[in-house]
From TrEMBL:
Residues 97-479 form the Solute-binding protein family domain. The keyword Transmembrane helix applies. It comes from Ignisphaera aggregans. It comes from the Archaea. This is Solute-binding protein family 5 domain-containing protein. Residues 679-727 are annotated as: Disordered. Belongs to the bacterial solute-binding protein 5 family. GO terms for biological process: peptide transport. Signal peptide: none annotated. One of its GO terms (molecular function) is peptide transmembrane transporter activity. Residues 696-715 have a biased composition (Low complexity).
């Protein structure tokens, strides 16, 4: 009896000892597992709702969490003009028998929703649910989306409205003459990109009831406000992910949340970072403390330059910094409908009185824009036949003085410019939001213009009033972001008249600005063309990039923008990046810098051109691309410190490292495919023949006619008063959408609609079985020997 009890006790002790050893080993491995760490500005609400439509849901707080938990169908780099597959495998474009263009998308067939406990398949039904809700309840993708059709478990098709646009525009300088434009497009280029880059957040078995409710309803019949409120208030207490990581809601605190590797992710073998720690911060000093402790893998940094230099020089801190232009530009908006800025030559002259190098010196980490003013971020994107007709408005005081004299101003004995008709000085106000760098911009601009005899005052206002100042045109000169499209040539349709500039918005401002009329644009070659900015913008946005009709509209807008100078030059905004150089091979993938940028504090930061790091932190991909490159098996831990970057070898193009099994598509390949399907859209020839170069330079109608001098004879151009309403030629703009009857057809297999499986981790179970067998065998052998 004693022997039996002793044997049982020995067996239990051995079993507990074995379990504790295994637990210790697992804990040790877990503690040593490589980890990614990020900072997110988010405040945990009193009641947490993991519903993706609920305001303040944790996963929706940042693209870091979204991409880790529910990666997008494709990652599209505007800069590289490349589609990188993620949750989808492939897509194609086509024309159906009814003439409608469509996008057919094939998603991965090996993804599964996972909540840390249960599994269910990820299918086209989930994708259909997401887009149906976003379209008919959230009111997105209007007016270009016409139908969503599920073809099978992993294939879904989106149909586009076939749109026909018809425009008539009166000539600005001769309203009795009218130009007619027509345009037909079976596709919407912007729509293709938008659809392909969405994050699917909606399991059908949870959200499908809302999608089914509106599927057969016409857009105008959907009670979208009521349904949107239902969606937003629906409480969801678990997080469903199909990406490389799943969000563990039990780890959610006021200071962060932990993402754990998803063992059922099809590319889990490549996910070498077992966890992602997200730190919630509310102030810059918290961010800096994490950087100083090496708790940030890679991120934009807001650390002050003096502290950044201290951290950079400390060999004991793995956080290091470099700089790059991430396609952000700050510049000027001229109120071209307010005297004296309604005179074209005045805007041209003021632009030529800005020394761009001196301007960039006004604030740290700014670079001058030494380029043509085109409305684009870089004229090097343009072919020579467009650039050959561009005017150079670089710093040139002598030419600027000639333009001011031509516009009716004369320099007095006190060195200031005066209107020869009214005797009033040339005076302006420069306004800006109360950002530190914009105030420095305004002060430098004031100093420069005053050196040349222009009277300048400055005004800063609370940044919350930016939209109000813009909408009411409450400025002479406004310092703002995005006065030029800076990301890529293919995105030009998102610029020009699509800026946050009230002069191009709404019928009242169209009446004021007349940008829907045909403007005379004198070219450098001596000819004059007529451009309707509004019409050409509509055409540019609807056209496929790099097609003949797209180039036609782009060239006209570039020439228009270059001549009339609605926006002025500014500076390139340089961002600083914090990288833990001991943790990943990021710096190895980036390679040596293109140069350095002086901080003005006795040290320099390595500098990279934006195209070099298009996949890493470069707008708009942000820092989600490294997740994808981990999936591809490219991003890995490093075994050595990768610093300083000047010592690193030159890397290969990261696209060449992507395994061939992934169908990477360039935008130009997509366009080539489309061109084989559709005939070029037709554009009618304007009815009037363009007139020769006018003898007077066109001027803008002023919003303050009482202060404007009367019109004088050639050659001195002067502003003309705003015509009375009876003198305004009515411009008719008709946009016709040809929509095939709305319908939704689904043919997904019932086996995949709502199958939820409770999964057991058989690896652990089998390991424990083997251990118990070995322990039992040892105990038996021991007792037998006794």
């Amino acid at each position: 009896m004693k022997t039996g009890v002793r044997s049982l006790l020995i067996s239990l002790i051995l079993l507990l000892l074995t379990i504790n050893i295994l637990s210790l080993i697992a804990t040790t491995i877990h503690a040593q597992a490589p980890r990614l760490e990020f900072i997110v500005r988010w405040t945990k609400p009193a009641v947490v709702n993991h519903n993706p439509f609920a305001p303040g849901n944790p996963v929706g707080a940042s693209s870091y969490l979204q991409a880790a938990c529910r990666p997008p169908l494709y990652l599209y780099s505007i800069v590289a003009e490349t589609f990188l597959p993620w949750s989808a495998r492939d897509f194609k474009l086509g024309i159906d028998t009814d003439g409608r263009g469509y996008l057919e998308l094939v998603i991965r067939n090996d993804l599964r929703w996972f909540n840390g406990r249960d599994l269910k398949p990820f299918t086209s039904r989930d994708v259909w649910t997401f887009f149906m809700i976003q379209w008919k309840i959230q009111r997105n993708y209007i007016p270009w989306l016409d139908e969503i059709r599920v073809l099978d478990d992993y294939t879904i098709r989106f149909y586009f409205n076939k749109s026909a646009m018809s425009f008539t525009s009166a000539r600005l300088d001769k309203p009795e003459e009218v130009y007619t434009y027509e345009f037909v497009a079976p596709f919407n280029y912007i729509g293709i990109r938008v659809l392909l880059t969405q994050y699917i957040t909606t399991p059908y078995d949870i959200f499908g009831k809302w999608a089914e409710q509106v599927a057969l309803m016409k857009l105008g019949e959907v009670p979208h406000a009521q349904l949107r409120e239902e969606l937003q208030t629906f409480q969801l207490d678990e997080v469903w992910c199909y990406g490389p990581y799943w969000v563990d809601p039990t780890t959610l605190t006021d200071t962060g949340v932990l993402l754990k590797k998803n063992p059922y992710y099809p590319l889990a073998r490549n996910i070498v970072f077992e966890e992602v720690q997200v730190h919630y911060t509310r102030a810059t000093d918290q961010d800096i403390a994490l950087e100083r402790d090496g708790r940030v893998t890679f991120q934009y940094s807001a650390a002050p330059l003096d502290l950044m230099g201290t951290i950079q020089a400390d060999a004991g801190i793995p956080t290091k910094y470099f700089a790059s232009w991430v396609w952000v530009i700050h510049g000027l908006w001229f109120n071209a409908w307010k005297y004296p800025l309604n005179i074209t030559e005045v805007r041209q002259a003021l632009t030529m009185l800005i020394n761009r190098t001196r301007l960039a010196e006004a604030y740290p980490l700014r670079l001058p824009i030494n380029d043509y003013i085109t409305g684009l971020g870089d004229s090097n994107w343009l072919p020579d036949w467009i650039k050959n007709n561009l005017y150079d408005w670089s710093y040139n005081p002598q030419k600027a003085y000639q333009l001011l004299e031509k516009a009716g101003f004369k320099k007095g004995s006190d060195g200031k410019w005066y209107d020869t008709k009214t005797g009033q000085p040339l005076s302006l106000e420069v306004a800006c939001g109360s950002y530190t760098d914009w105030i420095a911009f305004a002060d430098n601009l004031k100093w420069q213009w005053e050196q040349h005899g222009v009277v300048v005052t400055t005004r800063s206002f609370d940044v919350s009033l930016r939209a109000q100042v813009q909408d009411k045109l409450n400025y002479d000169v406004l310092i703002e972001t995005g006065p030029m499209v800076s990301t890529a040539l293919a995105e030009a349709g998102g610029g020009f008249l699509n800026l946050r500039w009230a002069m191009f918005a709404g019928p009242d401002n169209l009446k004021l600005t007349k940008v829907d009329m045909a403007w005379p644009v004198p070219l450098r070659n001596g000819s004059t063309i007529y451009v309707s900015p509004y019409v050409e913008t509509q055409k540019l946005q609807a056209s496929l990039p790099f097609t003949p009709e797209w180039w036609d509209s782009l060239s006209k807008l570039v020439w228009f923008w270059n001549y009339y100078i609605f926006t002025g030059v500014g500076w390139k905004v340089i961002r600083t990046f914090a990288v833990n150089v001991d943790r990943t091979n990021i710096m190895e993938l980036i390679g040596p810098p293109d140069g350095s940028i002086d901080t003005g504090l006795g040290y320099k930061l390595p500098y990279y051109e934006g195209m070099r790091i298009w996949w890493f932190g470069s707008s708009p991909t942000g820092f989600i691309a490294p997740y994808l490159f981990q999936d591809y098996g490219i991003l890995k831990p490093t075994t050595k410190r990768l610093w300083p970057p000047e010592t690193l070898p030159k890397p290969t193009d990261i696209r060449n490292l992507i395994p061939s099994e992934y169908k990477v598509r360039t935008l130009r390949e997509v366009v080539d495919q489309l061109l084989k399907l559709i005939a070029p859209p037709t554009t009618t020839t304007p009815t009037p023949t363009p007139s020769p170069t006018p003898t007077t330079t066109p001027t803008m109608p002023t919003t303050t006619p009482t202060t404007v001098p009367p019109t004088t004879t050639t050659p001195t151009p002067t502003p003309s008063p705003t015509p009375s309403p009876t003198e305004i030629s009515v411009t008719t703009i008709t946009i016709t959408t040809i929509s095939v009857v709305e319908r939704t057809i689904s043919s997904v297999s019932t086996a995949l609609i709502s199958t939820t499986v409770r999964e057991t981790d058989w690896t652990i179970t089998m390991l424990l079985t083997v251990v118990l067998f070995v322990v039992g065998f040892a105990v038996g052998w021991f007792l037998k020997k006794r």
